[in-house]
Amino acid sequence: QDLPEAKSPMAKPKKSRNSAPDPSVAARLPWQPSAPPLATALLISFAALLLRALVSVGPYSGQGAAPKFGDYEAQRHWMELTLHLPSSDWYRNTSDNDLAHWGLDYPPLSAYQSRLHAHLINASLPDAVALRSSRGFESQESKLLMRWTVLSSDLILFFPAALWFVWAYMKDGVGGSGERREGWTWLLAMVLLNPCLVLIDHGHFQYNCISLGLTLGAIAGILSRNELVAAALFSLAINHKQVLSYLEQR
Asked: What is the pTM assigned to this prediction?
């Protein structure tokens, strides 16, 4: 009987055709978290901030179109009213508050937010929020100040809420475990770079970033098992924009 052919000691072992590539040497995209998480989060946040700034330099609906002048005039008019009128007159039709011209139709927290921003604008450009005489007031300086009130609200409320939400969602396996947790970068980018929020708030003079930031913080509170904090934040969100009350019914 023939003996099996002896293998040469110098023979190279055959490579398995089904061998998977080593994940440690797999190519990574620049924003995938081989970098420290803090640096990655700051990079995404900076890109989101830059996008908002670029959108804010564009035109907006109602620009120069009397007598309504679009949502710019609505927000400016609410600042005018809340700055000069007592809170008892904010929602009543009076000689100083013509409800036919952008009557205030958001809950009290939104009105107090308008009042706070009105004080900031009044300190440097009082003509922009003067009672009655400022109706239809449009200037480059007033628009810049209005843009800054939106951007600062976004940075103070929505950005921290987004970071807290992503951290809470990925913590304790809620958003996956192991390699799946690397998807937090995509989740943060989707939240901060949401085109609807950016276009409406920074291209159309709105403050949805406040109510949505409070809502996102409430969700993060639930995920973090801070129910009281979540309840307080969601109550504030409803008192800023009543449209969020539909979330209660789901």
From this structure: 0.81
